[in-house]
């Protein structure tokens, strides 16, 4: 029996505006890049929103938030991670005055959470750059984005101070290297971008994140602001020294994004990395001082580990979340080829904490599979024992990391209610404890049904992890 989770551990779930809200033009909202990405990150973009884009309706959280938050409260959530859609607050992204209807919407969402004793954990930018900024400035390739983001942050910090204590700046900020449109609102095709373009855009996001931290601490002294990175473990494929060095280098590329935001400066190894990539970061006066506004904690997603080698062509390539490496022959994988490695979560927690000695927050972890509704004793449900096993095994390893001495603030399971997949824009790839009756062709009633995992997670929370086995 695990007793390692602290008494104030923040159990909960995570969602994102563009994947669940829908109502893409209601309440004065402007378009975001997601509104022209009908096939997710893997497909082509459209000139205008298409009916085939499931995100335009999502799961209708915009209208059903109160019902859904009540279900989260029934599970016992201590926190809910959600994002604010920038284009609800500033429809084009570069206006001087905000859209009051958008602010009022998040007033209602936040108040609903608080009424149930649920701590809001708000992501400021979750893959939903306003489309106007992407079209006019090519997203974060432009330094002007820093000022627009600062204005947006100041607006929501002033509005929600006293109600929201936990904030995240950019969701999976390191994803910009692999997916510049989703991660950086960059419309120029990736194949036309240089490494200089991509890492310069990342620098603009680093500066914007640092400004957000500085602003938050000025406006809300009690607030805690975290970075958020795509967490991946890179195992060497073999103990051959060349593979060990390859693993070290891949891990360094990932750690660059936490090093800058947690330590407040570019690490020494970035000199070689940038030299090898032909990158020379253009710094403006004051950038070095700005970066010293470091985050209060490190949050990350964890879905899978991967292997790497000095010569990856010798091995079978793995599939998975945003980045893929060499397939690990010792691990099972999901229907979408994501390799399941609960121990990797313990490893990554120790890796981060040993490196930074700052609190961690696991803000995404979950299993995306095709669920089937069944009727049992007059109740419609999903017998998702596979999801229970996946989450149980990961939480066991998270508990072991805490026993190792790692400080972990909380855990928010990804897609605590079914939503549209970011990678493939499908609804059939389900993560939730709550089934939403909507299909890939857009049909369905949008009714909500509790899966078997709903009551399992409720017990995990009520026992503070003691029910895990």
Question: Can you tag this structure with a few keywords?
Answer:
8-stranded parallel barrel, alpha/beta, 469 residues, TIM Barrel
Order of helices and strands: EHHEHHEHHEHHEHHHEHEEEHEEEH
Average per-residue pLDDT, rounded, comes to: 95
With helices defined by DSSP (H or I, 4 residues minimum), what is the helix count?
Answer: 14
Distance, first to last CA = 7 Å
Physical arrangement of strands within the biggest beta sheet: 1-2-3-4-5-6-7-10
The secondary structure category is alpha/beta
CATH 4th-level superfamily: Glycosidases
What overall form do the CA principal axes indicate?
globular
What is the helix fraction of residues, given as a range?
Answer: 25-40%
Radius of gyration: 21 Å
Tally the structural domains: 1
Quote the beta fraction.
15-25%
InterPro entries: GH, GH_1_N_CS, Glyco_hydro_1, Glyco_hydro_1_AS
GO molecular function, one term: beta-glucosidase activity
Organism: Youngiibacter fragilis 232.1
Active site: 364
Give a description of the structure.
The protein is an alpha/beta fold and 469 residues long. The protein has one domain: TIM Barrel (Alpha-Beta Barrel), CATH 3.20.20.80. The chain has helices at residues 17-20, 61-75, 86-89, 100-115, 131-137, 144-160, 180-184, 195-219, 241-263, 269-277, 287-290, 342-356, 385-403, 452-462; strands at 10-14, 79-83, 119-125, 166-170, 224-236, 297-308, 360-364, 374-376, 379-381, 408-414, 434-436, 448-450. The strands form three sheets. Strands 1-2-3-4-5-6-7-10 form an eight-stranded parallel beta barrel, surrounded by four helices. A two-stranded antiparallel ribbon has the order 8-9. A two-stranded antiparallel ribbon has the order 11-12. The mean pLDDT is 95.
